[in-house]
Amino acid sequence: MSRPGRLTLGAVHGAALALTATGFGFTLWNGVSDPGNALAFGILIAVGELTRWGAPPGGGASPGLGDTRGREPAPLAAAGALAYALLGEQAGQATAHGVLQIIAVVVAGGLVGTVPHIARGKEPDLDHQARRILTVGFAALCFQPLYNSGEVTARLGHGPAYALFLALLLVLTALCDAVLAALMLRARTGFPYGPLLRDELRALIGIGSAVCATGAVMALGVAAAGLWALPVFCVPLLLTQVSFRRYEAVRATNRQTIASLARATEIAGCTSPGHARRVAALSGAVGRELGLSGPDLTVLEYAALMHDIGQLSLVDPVPEGATALLPAEEQRRIALLGGAVVRQTGVPAAVAVVVERQADPYRDQPLPARIVRTVNAYDDLTGADAGAAGSLAALERLRFSTARDHHPEVVESLARVLARGGVTGGVAPAPPG
């Protein structure tokens, strides 16, 4: 991680820690207001942490590939924290808790729910906890002073105008969370901020919107019916979480199937062990560097995994699978054979197009094909155990081929990714088949 990245994370973690210390200090000094509400919401947040999703297959979230667990691993806890921040009444009676007590309860509930995970050997997600503290603090700071002063009910009442006010506040809170999430990912990975922010905003349409809606409905339900509304309004989000869990399981199975298919070239002796996984992981990092996000990254990953599948159709295997060293016509023939195979696998047609066109002159290629071609050539030239000297020699050779074969911007992006440590900066390698 670069020095600016460490400073950014340090600032975010420091702000969350300072807010937590202030919240606990204030609450311990002044006592807990409405202890029943605090206990109920604290238990809800703890239960939400207990039911959080685990790490995605392959180790760690791979931002932008559609994994909702990386975006919000504990949706019930997040909704409960947001509901407590937006709680102004309980069964028609005004509440007296403030911003600092909200922070204290959210942190306490999160810690209680995290302890069992730590006991099982899982490391706490400090980035996610810091993000939640700051986001909930933002929502509470926007809502509680206005509501407690009576300005909100005096001007808006409890009708549609009040619901519109809550909706606007939820949008601002979601934007704050997305900005923070992208900022922290940028600090850890060094990837461009714009695509990361687009991924975070896109994720809000899925699990993010469910969390925001449930948080608001919980707050309104408790205000009207009391704490009995909490378990009732938890059920829809729990069902949503189950649906997303099944969706992610299907995605993971699909990805593992493609990774297993990609290993067929290794098993047949056409490519070196781990070649497809290395190309896929490094291609993802370069794609991030060049601004790809969301579905484009998924297409890039699948194409990188299966870029050598055409070698299975050859009578005589290419020595060590190094197609980058073959004549252009032979490379094109293998690419077309690979595209024909990929079209039979059921993956999006865009993946087959990338595989088919990876041997074309780069001026005629889409960006994913340019990336796969350059990263594949780099791995062919260096192998699995490339040292610093071998890596530099391979990059120089790629630079000498920028007239036709490799786009200069892709080569330089690859060099920047390698200078940061390759794929160690937040891109999960493809899982073993």
Chain-wise SSE layout:
Layout lengths: L2 H28 L4 H16 L17 H4 L3 H11 L3 E2 L2 E2 L4 H21 L6 H23 L2 H6 L3 H30 L3 H33 L3 H34 L1 H4 L7 H15 L5 H11 L22 H15 L6 H8 L10 H16 L5 H12 L8 H12 L14
Antiparallel strand pairs: 1-2
Give a brief description.
This protein is mainly alpha-helical.
Question: Any descriptors?
Answer:
elongated; disordered C terminus; two-stranded antiparallel ribbon; 1% strand; 18 helices; single chain; 433 residues; mainly alpha
Main-sheet strand order equals: 1-2
- Calculate Rg over CA atoms: 25 Å
Largest sheet: 2 strands, antiparallel
Categorize the overall geometry.
Answer: elongated
User: Quaternary status of these chains?
Assistant: single chain
N to C succession of SSEs: HHHHEEHHHHHHHHHHHHHH
Number of strands: 2
Alpha-carbon distance between the two ends: 30 Å
Percent strand: under 5%
Mean pLDDT: 83
Low-confidence stretches: 55-69, 424-433
Could you estimate the helical fraction of the residues in percent?
A: 55-70%
Structural class, judged by helices and strands?
Answer: mainly alpha
Q: Describe it for me?
A:
This protein is mainly α and 433 residues long. Helix 2 packs antiparallel against helix 4, helix 8 packs antiparallel against helix 9 (193-225) and helix 13 (295-305) packs parallel to helix 16 (367-382). Helices cover 69% and strands 1% of the residues. It has helices spanning 3-30, 35-50, 68-71, 75-85, 99-119, 126-148, 151-156, 160-189, 193-225, 229-262, 264-267, 275-289, 295-305, 328-342, 349-356, 367-382, 388-399, 408-419; strands at 89-90, 93-94. Mean pLDDT is 83; it is low at 55-69 and 424-433. The protein is built from 18 helices and two strands. A hairpin with a 2-residue loop joins strand 1 and strand 2. It starts with a helix and ends in a 14-residue tail after the last helix. Strands 1-2 form a two-stranded antiparallel sheet. It is elongated, with a radius of gyration of 25 Å.
